[in-house]
Write a structure and sequence with these properties.
The protein has five helices and twelve strands.
């Protein structure tokens, strides 16, 4: 059954069309970004790409810096894939897919220098702000990577510091001080199926991928992070094409923020 579906998908792609009628590099519609959806979080956002639906919440905690970076704060990204969003997901410790999802989101933010970690320092060597980013898919209809990355960025844009007297955080009182973002990294995952390249795969297309490349870029198109997935290798020519598609399509997603 899977082989038949894959052959059918490849036949359609060769004719420049997809299962749902989209063009090869067309995102599902609508793309919706809603901010401040979780009142108990310091920042939050909900992103819908077609039927894929993801919520991201941001919490700010005070902790100790790492010994090798005594004057820098940090980010911690986690993803919880619940059976609520996809019956293939199971309860329990994070699996490979959840770990990779968190890693892709983390890498785009970290490598783009979207957050200046030095500005998260409260007291060098003893106190820093830790930015905790929690990803929670509500419905997985494909392409959680792009939806989660976009939701994380939208949530960070809305994040405000809670009141802090130097010893204790008052989470019930949000200040007017926003978390500063130096860059706005957008992730676009480009999929290779057969000899064709597509974006925003649905569930059926994800089952048929040969390889994928998540391309994170900032406002001027500068590349900041890459994550390869899938079982098959990519040629230099493949990567060049995927980079071009990823950087170009990032402009479309950026307009949704």
């Amino acid at each position: 059954m899977h082989r038949e579906l894959r052959n059918h998908i490849i036949g359609l792609l060769n004719a420049n069309i997809r299962l749902d009628g989209r063009k090869l590099t067309e995102y599902r519609k609508p793309i919706e970004v809603e901010s401040s959806v979780v009142k108990t979080a310091e920042g939050s956002a909900r992103v819908k790409i077609g039927e894929t639906d993801v919520i991201v919440g941001v919490k700010l905690e005070v902790g100790e810096p790492y010994p090798d970076t005594p004057n820098e704060g940090t980010i911690i990204v986690g993803a919880e894939l619940l059976p609520l969003s996809n019956p293939d997901f199971e309860l329990g410790p994070p699996g490979i897919q959840a770990i990779e999802l968190a890693r892709v989101v983390d890498r785009g933010i970290r490598e783009s220098k979207a957050i200046d970690f030095k500005k998260l320092c409260i007291e060098a060597g003893s106190k820093i702000w830790m930015v905790i980013i929690d990803i929670c898919p509500i419905n997985d209809a494909g392409n959680l990577l792009d939806a989660s990355s976009l939701a994380a960025l939208a949530a960070l844009k809305e994040t405000r510091y809670p009141a802090f007297d130097g010893e204790k955080i008052d989470y019930k009182t949000k200040t007017d001080k926003k978390l500063e973002l130096e860059k706005l990294p957008i992730a676009v995952t480009v999929i290779k199926i057969g000899e064709n390249f597509i974006v925003d795969p649905d569930t059926e297309e994800e089952m048929s991928i040969d390889a994928r490349l998540t391309v994170s870029s900032i406002e001027d198109g500068t590349l900041c992070a890459l994550q390869k997935g899938g079982d098959y290798p990519l040629t230099i020519e493949d990567i060049d094409k995927m980079l071009d598609i990823g950087i170009e399509k990032a402009k479309e997603l950026r307009r949704c923020l």
